[in-house]
Design brief:
Helix content is 37%, strand content 23%. It has 279 residues and is α/β, with parallel strands linked by helices. It has one domain: 3-Layer(aba) Sandwich (Rossmann fold), CATH 3.40.50.300. Strands 6-7-8-3-9-10 form a six-stranded mixed beta sheet, with helices on both faces. Helix 3 packs parallel to helix 5 and helix 4 packs across helix 5. The chain binds adenosine-5'-triphosphate. The site of adenosine-5'-triphosphate (ATP) has 13 residues, from strand 1, strand 2 and helix 2.
Length: 279
């Protein structure tokens, strides 16, 4: 593959199906998923609850394997989790007995504290500490480095989760509703921070969200998924708004309003969620 191809086809999802075994028999969660993501692209996945967004993100993370089809990242089949793909979940998943610093340090040590591919030597403890401090600084949490998760707010915990993922310098950042449990103001602040961080690191981002405004504000493309079972990609919307994006200016931007309406139409007209009657 040429380097131009590698850039434009950084993540390739081809003919993916995910079926789960359940007590009532096989359940097809995802079907016929085809998607190509370019290096440095910010892609969000949106769809009604239970349509399979997390299932797809877990497949890209390598936490699960597809029943059918292939997933490729940087020209290699995704065979399991790897430090090239950092994951942030909604419930932050920090170790409660460690400080914020230690939570991030653990991840840094795992990646940079040992000999890496191509014989790159392990870094010194001073270098690992420096990386940890830089990651916490990036999310504005230097002052809370010595606190434990129980002593900080939900928004701060999410920030530590993001710092931990970023500290590993992943090529791909996978975010599963990272701001879902936060109040609107904290959420807006973290969205702005994320935009800034991604602009600096040029990471490729795949993010699951329920929030239409969040999707339009952050994305280069929005992947809109149909309802399950056997959910698939219904439509992909390219969001052609210039960056850096400013939420206040965008609120009155006619293109922004148009993109927002396109997503709302998809979700609430074409994919109006029908609650299935219990059998
Ligand atoms: N391990 C599993 N075993 C059986 N069914 C599963 C499993 N994981 C997910 N599912 C089912 O697959 C479907 C998709 O789930 P998934 O969590 O990916 O949806 P989602 O779009 O992320 O939902 P939400 O927006 O509510 O988080 C759901 O019907 C869910 O019940």
């Amino acid at each position: 593959m040429s380097s131009a191809d590698l850039t434009s086809k950084y993540i390739q999802i081809q003919g993916v199906e995910q079926t789960f075994k359940t007590a009532k028999g096989p359940f097809v969660a995802l079907q016929n998923i085809d998607l190509t993501i370019a290096k440095g692209e910010f892609v969000t996945m949106i769809g009604h609850s239970g349509c399979g967004k997390s299932t797809l993100l877990n497949l890209i993370a390598g936490l699960t394997k597809p029943t059918r089809g292939t997933l490729i990242c940087a020209n290699r089949e995704i065979a399991g989790p790897g430090p090239d793909r950092g994951v942030v979940f909604q419930n932050h998943s920090l170790l409660p007995w460690l400080t914020c610093f230690e939570n991030v340090y653990l991840a840094v040590e795992r990646v940079f504290g040992q000999t890496r591919d191509a014989g790159i030597p392990a870094e010194s403890r001073a270098q690992l500490r420096e990386r940890t401090e830089a990651a916490l600084a990036m999310v504005g949490l230097s002052h809370a480095a010595q606190k434990r998760p129980g002593e900080i707010s939900g928004g701060m915990k999410q920030r530590v989760g993001i710092a931990r993922a970023l500290s590993m310098e992943p090529n791909v950042l996978l975010l599963d509703e990272p701001f879902g449990a936060l109040d609107a103001l904290t959420r807006a602040k973290l969205q702005d921070e994320l935009l800034q961080i991604v602009a600096n690191t040029r990471s490729t981002v795949v993010m699951v969200t329920h929030d239409v405004d969040e999707a339009v504000l952050l994305s280069d493309r929005i992947v809109m998924m149909t309802n399950g079972p056997a959910a698939t990609i219904g439509e992909v919307l390219a969001v052609d708004l210039p960056r850096p994006r400013d939420r206040i200016e965008l609120a009155e931007n006619t293109d922004y309003v148009h993109y927002r309406k396109a997503v709302i139409d998809f979700l609430y007209t074409r994919q109006a969620h029908v609650e299935r009657q219990a059998a």
